[in-house]
Amino acid sequence: MSVLPLDAPHLTRAEADEVFANILDLKASAQEIEAFLIALSERGETATEIAAAASAMRARVNGIEAPDNAVDCCGTGGDGQHTLNVSTAVSLVVAACGVPVAKHGNRAASSKSGAADTLEALGLDMDAAVRCAQKTLDTVGICFLFARVHHPALGPIAPIREKIGKRTIFNLLGPLTNPAGVRRQLIGLARPELVPAYAEAKASLDTDPAFIVSGDEGLDELSLAGGNTLADVAGGQVTMRRVDAGDIGIANAPLEAIRGDDAAYNAAALTRLLDGEKGAYRDAVLLNAAGTLVVAGVTDDWTEAAAKAAEALDSGAVKALLAKWIELTV
Questions:
Q1: Is 141 one of the annotated binding-site residues?
Q2: Is 105 a known ligand-binding residue?
Q3: Most buried of the four, 19, 163, 216, 297, by CB within 10 Å?
Q4: What does the pLDDT read at residue 207?
Q5: Are strands 184-188 and 71-75 parallel, antiparallel or unpaired?
Q6: What is the CB neighbour count within 10 angstroms for residue 188?
Q7: Residue 314 placed within a domain
Q8: Structurally, how many domains does the chain consist of?
Q9: Looking at residue 5, what is its pLDDT?
Q10: Number of other CB atoms surrounding residue 21 within 10 Å
């Protein structure tokens, strides 16, 4: 494999398939891989390249089985905003609404507390959760798919990525490589300008509904702070539109209102949410849960979806689901 210069034409799908197979199978040297990933990042990834890289990872994943209506709410990370764990809470809420959730996640990278860190602080035994993922998805309707366990092909190139010291195309691929093969998704990007290309990649990989979203401030989820870019992916087609929390009766709030910290801090906030605390964190969860429930096909009305999510919280169903999940993984 040769280095990709900054002025090189974009890779065809066949070329990209070969390149990423060579990278993941270590058929290129560390120096070649490093140079290629840096050049690709600086030039900017295309939809074709994102789809090819995701396909290469999917071909090498340790997967589990999920129902056809299973969903995931997952961001790429890397927004640097250090917010509370919104997608983690959304996953609990959506599962409590009766939709199976195969939550794909990891420990913190750019944030202070990733999904795995916060769930552990809430009392979930992460090692057991990984071992019991199939069982808990089948019985409770939720599981945690620890990225580092399900994607062993990424292990050998980890030192190369660490040496590069900045984000590469592999930091974009988590949501597209869910180990349960989930196709209905709310995917958050930290780069609004990348949403169209990412949506095109998603459309080429599968055809079930997905929303690709990004807050205008670069938040990798639907933001309360202002407008959001949303790409609606369905039937292999992409429709771009704008979404604002106010459109469904949820109050806008500054990003500071959902600022998080370490795992203990974020877990305490999530516990208060489950105990009925109102405020911006709840509103952010309701907004993103609404989008996820719409993608899941529960309803096509965002306001109705937000109301269903609120009812799941207020009835104690979300808190009960978390307790059952922890009980099954002890």
A1: no
A2: yes
A3: 19
A4: 75
A5: parallel
A6: 28
A7: yes
A8: 1
A9: 45
A10: 17
Q: How much is the pTM?
A: 0.95
Residue with tokens 């995917």: 187
Q: Is 104 annotated as a binding residue?
A: yes
CA 62, 52, 5, 192 dihedral sign is negative
Q: Tell me if 47 is assigned to a ligand binding site.
A: no
**Would the annotation count 109 as a binding residue?**
yes
CB-based contact 87:71 (threshold 8 Å): no
Write the CATH number for 90: 3.40.1030.10
36 part of a folded domain: no
Does residue 8 lie within any of the structural domains? no
Range of the domain at 104: 71-150+157-328
215 marked among binding-site residues: no
110 is in an annotated binding site: yes
Asked whether residue 75 is marked as a ligand-binding residue, the answer is yes
Is 190 annotated to bind a ligand? Reply is no
pLDDT value at position 122?
97
78 is in an annotated binding site: yes
Which pLDDT value is given to residue 6? 46
Q: Is 88 annotated as a binding residue?
A: yes
- Do the domain assignments include residue 42? no
CB atoms within 10 A of CB 310: 18
Does 120 show up as a binding residue in the annotation? no
Ligand-binding annotation for 107, yes or no, is yes
Residue 220 marked in a binding site: yes
* pLDDT at 8 (0 to 100): 55
